[in-house]
Automatic annotation (TrEMBL):
A molecular-function term among this protein's GO annotations: rRNA (uridine-C5-)-methyltransferase activity
Gene3D superfamilies recorded: 2.40.50.1070, Nucleic acid-binding proteins, Vaccinia Virus protein VP39
Lineage of source species: Bacteria, Pseudomonadati, Pseudomonadota, Gammaproteobacteria, Alteromonadales
Keywords associated with the record: 4Fe-4S, Iron, Iron-sulfur, Metal-binding, Methyltransferase, S-adenosyl-L-methionine, Transferase
Protein family per UniProt: Belongs to the class I-like SAM-binding methyltransferase superfamily. RNA M5U methyltransferase family.
Protein name: 23S rRNA (Uracil(1939)-C(5))-methyltransferase RlmD
PANTHER family: 23S RRNA (URACIL(1939)-C(5))-METHYLTRANSFERASE RLMD (PTHR11061:SF49), RNA M5U METHYLTRANSFERASE (PTHR11061)
Positions contributing to S-adenosyl-L-methionine binding: Q273, Y302, E323, D370
Organism for this UniProt entry: Idiomarina tyrosinivorans
PROSITE patterns cross-referenced by the UniProt entry: SAM_MT_RNA_M5U (PS51687), TRMA_1 (PS01230), TRMA_2 (PS01231)
Amino acid sequence: MAQFFKPSRRAKPQPQQRHQMAQVIALDHQARGIVRTPEVRFIEGVLPGERIRFAPQGKYDGILIERLCSAEQRQTPPCQYYQTCGGCDFQHASMSLQRRHKQQVVSELFNKFAQLQQLPWQTMVAAQESGYRRRVRLATHWHAKRQQLTIGLRQRHSKKIVSIDQCWVCEPAINDHLPKLAALIENVGLGRQLGHVDILAVQPYPLILLRIDGVVSDSQRQDLTQWQTQHSVQIALDDGQAQPQLLVETQQKPYVRSIDGDPLYLTPGDFFQVNAMVNQQLVERALAWLAPNSNDTVMDLYAGIGNFSLPLARRCHQLVAVEGITRMTAQLSRNASAAGLSNIDAKTLDLLQPQALQQLSFAVDAVLLDPARAGAKVVAEKLAGLPKGQRPQRIVYVSCAADTLARDVAALTQGNYRISRCAVVDMFPQTHHIETIMLLEESE
Ligand SMILES: C[S@@+](CC[C@H](N)C(=O)[O-])C[C@H]1O[C@@H](n2cnc3c(N)ncnc32)[C@H](O)[C@@H]1O
């Protein structure tokens, strides 16, 4: 049969003459270096002040070929997998540069989207630089010929998996179990059926959540049950259809603790904040800025399983919590009951729907907003337009996406609010991800 030439789908190496020299002038919002030659290009792994040789790629990108000098703020990436793993993209910068850059990005976005030049910055909410992640999702690949399983994190810009047995930013409870997983799955014979694996550093035992396609036999269940007892972990199975199930349903439900020590029970798959120490400080900061007292009615929007709701309810008269996922609202209510709190009214509403907001009275003393990346546009526009006496005096907005935060805060400041405090929250050190907390108060 005739053989036709098929070009490789891999990016071709750039010919030598196309390489260009440039000085990195700044970092973009994803912590990539910006060069101008004169066209603007974005290059990963480089820092402002560094002179580099790079290969242009596509219309806007470049690939670093050689660094001719190093910025003072460069550090040797501490993680052995840094060059290949796509997990942390900012390890080559000192912690002070990482944190300064995050604040700079928020300032730039507010300048651009909210026309606000000066923000009232407060001390950053930050804790340890490594060993902070209490949940991680691992990718897996089953080599049928070798009957071997690879577990790890995705390579940068690739579907390939970097096999890891330690993750520098994960909590020790995760790293204790990560190296044992491949052998467990191979021995139990679930390699072919395995999708991803989540490890959660929760109480009373670390939880390993296996995404399995197809049926798990009784003998496989027995093997897994034996293993979880031997290694003091809990295993849960997720078939992608129904809610993940603990292998032994009679065992105690997993939980994390609120800042007051109340257990926040969760079902595998429920959202909880990734960085326990930063979360502790974040909730404390939100409480300090919202300053609830025992006569106040407070609203916690995007409440999850009650991370902010329970501490707020302990300090105010009445707490209205709103969450979009029914299962999590029910969990929040159970968590409130377990903590002996009877002043929480938990509702399930889609806060992106204007008509859903008609079911809420915003004549409360304070509101906490903690939306997902999409932000809280509909809520912000509603709050911005409410007359005095029917709106909260204080709003604390916790955000994981500075662009949607700037958009929503612009709506609030064009209404009856002004920004009185803000701080960067370094929830994900060693990565470019930015969280922010902002206090808005009635301006008249
Ligand atoms: C960043 S998490 C914060 C959860 C909680 N405040 C915490 O600290 O753990 C955002 C929460 O908003 C919920 N959510 C996302 N979109 C929503 C929507 N349209 N309406 C209501 N809740 C939503 C998610 O289910 C999630 O629990």
